[in-house]
Write a structure and sequence with these properties.
single chain; alpha+beta; Chorismate synthase, AroC fold; five-stranded antiparallel beta sheet; 34% helix; 21% strand; Chorismate synthase
């Protein structure tokens, strides 16, 4: 079983990760992890934090001579902004004076609920840990997972389909072309004209002191039939992917395949008809199910779309109430992104990579990559003979 934990605060010394259950002999390239961390930091509409941080990963254990050993993998990512917060965020620092205590919860954040839940008179620990800065650690985890999937040919790409009121109309492209066009766009949109309109929308929102959300799509391709299971609720692949995506900060909705669109259509136009040929075996001409039926991958690309709410930290402050004095106030203006949907699509890729790696390890097992690949290839041969 694969599992991981992250630790660390947004302005603490570093973010830490422990990954357990990774098979031995998986090639791990630090440069590949750093590429994913850099992709997360790009995107039109990002805030000043991205000018401070230049994320890179440090490996502390579980990898030797560029390969996993089967032991827990320990990683960390230093926070360069720590230097500005060291006096306050040092774990052994004395409690802050009243001037530094955060007692004013921001609407749309975990501030108030977290302070009440953990009985905290200072909101700082909540906002530090709930911050989307934590996704840097998760992107590193996803990058490790991708390197397990790569020898099996399973790949992942993403692109942005909506920012605010500007949406991409459906455009058929090969998966390679989607990845190429998305990476070439500042907003990760595959249509250059729509990209410009999205950037104009972000600029308009910035001038108004507001923020924007949107929708991104993640595509997982070369997926074998049979990952996940119908036999228990917590083994369904679509449920596992939904949980992974909904755990990303600011994600408020997810759909697979046609998703909500299919709810307005008759079944005769929704379900993917099944065909067979000696050349292709079982196949479908459509993919409205988004690659998953009955909680099991069906061999087609898995298509996931996630909706991200607007960033809740605004330059146009909203009303709130001080938890100590109970006095009303306008929420403080802080350095913030205007739009982080392009970055969220990279986090979505990482969430998908981790979930698929877990599904692969669960189905094919093995303490080493060689054992897992033997099991995988044997299953592929069995499936092709059906």
């Amino acid at each position: 079983m694969l599992r991981y934990l992250t630790a660390g605060e947004s302005h603490g010394f570093m973010l830490s990760v422990i990954i357990d259950g990774m098979p031995a002999n998986v090639d791990i390239n630090t440069d590949d992890i750093n590429v994913e961390l850099q992709r997360r930091q790009r995107g039109y509409g990002r805030g000043g934090r991205m000018k401070i941080e230049s994320d890179s990963v440090h490996i502390d254990g579980g990898i030797l001579h560029g390969k996993t050993t089967g032991a827990p993998i320990a990683l960390h990512i230093c926070n360069k902004d720590w230097s500005h917060w060291q006096d306050y965020m040092d774990p052994q620092a004395p409690p802050p004076d009243d001037k530094k205590t955060v007692t004013r919860p921001r609407p749309g954040h975990a501030d108030l609920a977290g302070a009440i839940k953990y009985n905290l008179q200072d909101i700082r620990p909540v906002l530090e840990r709930s911050s989307a800065r934590e996704t840097a650690a998760r992107v590193a985890v996803g990058a490790v997972a991708r390197q397990l999937l790569k020898p099996l040919g399973i790949g992942i790409c993403s692109h942005v389909t909506r920012i605010g009121s500007v949406a991409l109309s459906e455009q058929p492209h090969s998966i390679d072309k989607i990845a190429e066009l998305a990476d070439a766009s500042l907003v990760r949109c595959i249509d250059p004209a729509v990209s410009k309109a999205m950037m104009a929308e972000i600029d308009s929102c910035r001038r108004q002191g507001d923020s924007l959300g949107g929708v991104f799509e993640v595509i997982i391709y070369n997926v074998p039939v049979g990952l996940g299971s119908h036999v228990q609720w917590d083994r369904r692949l679509d449920g596992l992917l939904a949980q992974a995506f909904m755990s990303i900060q600011a994600i408020k909705g997810i759909e697979i395949g046609l998703g909500f669109q299919g709810a307005a259509m008759p079944g005769s136009t929704v379900h993917d008809e099944i065909y067979y040929s000696s050349e292709h075996g079982f196949y479908r001409q459509t993919n409205n199910a988004g690659g998953i039926e009955g909680g099991i991958s069906n061999g087609q690309p898995i298509v996931i779309r996630a909706a991200m709410k607007p960033i809740p930290t605004l330059y146009k402050p909203l009303n709130s109430v001080d938890i100590k004095t109970k006095e009303a106030f306008s929420a403080s203006i802080e350095r913030s992104d205007i739009c982080a949907v392009p970055a969220a699509s990279i986090v979505g890729e990482a969430a998908a990579a981790w979930t698929m790696a877990c599904a692969v390890v669960e189905k094919f097992g093995g303490d080493s990559l060689e054992e897992l690949k033997r099991n995988y290839m044997g299953y592929i041969k069995q499936a092709s003979e059906m």
